[in-house]
Amino acid sequence: MKFTLRKQERLKSRKLIEKLYKDGTSLKVFPLRMMYLQTEHTSNFPAQMGVSVAKRNFKRAVDRNRIKRLLRETYRLQKEIVYNNLEEPHIFMISYLGKEEKTYEELSSKMNKLLNLFLEDVKNISNEKL
């Protein structure tokens, strides 16, 4: 598997983002929150993801952009966990909730916990449907 994050893997559709925040489910591993929803999307990949950082917590755009870059990088290196375990297509948005910037190592471990929690939740939901 390639460790890239292509345009088709990123959540860009305004309609899908609105649907995600309206109908999605939330998971938290501080300082990260994931909103996810099982739905069809436009790409061939099993998941589309987006990242966000609140302007309220980080006034300067350079700080927000750095955190978003770190979040995308930690996801890019760990997305194999998600891709190997998803059957249906999902969309999700990862938001940074903290007020201070964390190191790459801290974000990487939190992202790992969040992705594993997401997979557990998806498996529980699919088991309930059976």
List keywords for this structure.
20% strand; 3 helices; 130 residues; alpha+beta; 45% helix; single chain; 4-stranded mixed sheet
Q: Can you summarize this structure?
A:
The protein is α+β, with helices and mostly antiparallel strands.
What does this structure look like?
- It is a single chain.
- With 130 residues, the chain is α+β, with helices and mostly antiparallel strands.
- 45% of the residues lie in helices and 20% in strands.
- Helix 2 packs across helix 3.
- Strands 1-2-4-3 form a four-stranded mixed sheet, with helices on both faces.
- It has helices at residues 14-23, 61-83, 104-129; strands at residues 25-29, 32-38, 47-53, 90-96.
- The model has no long low-confidence stretch (mean pLDDT 94).
| Residues in helix, % | 40-55%
User: Mean of residue pLDDT?
Assistant: 94
Number of helices: 3
Residue fraction in strands: 15-25%
**Which structural category fits the helices and strands?**
alpha+beta
Number of strands: 4
Write the layout of secondary structure elements.
Layout: H1 14-23, E1 25-29, E2 32-38, E3 47-53, H2 61-83, E4 90-96, H3 104-129
Parallel strand pairs: 3-4
Antiparallel strand pairs: 1-2, 2-4
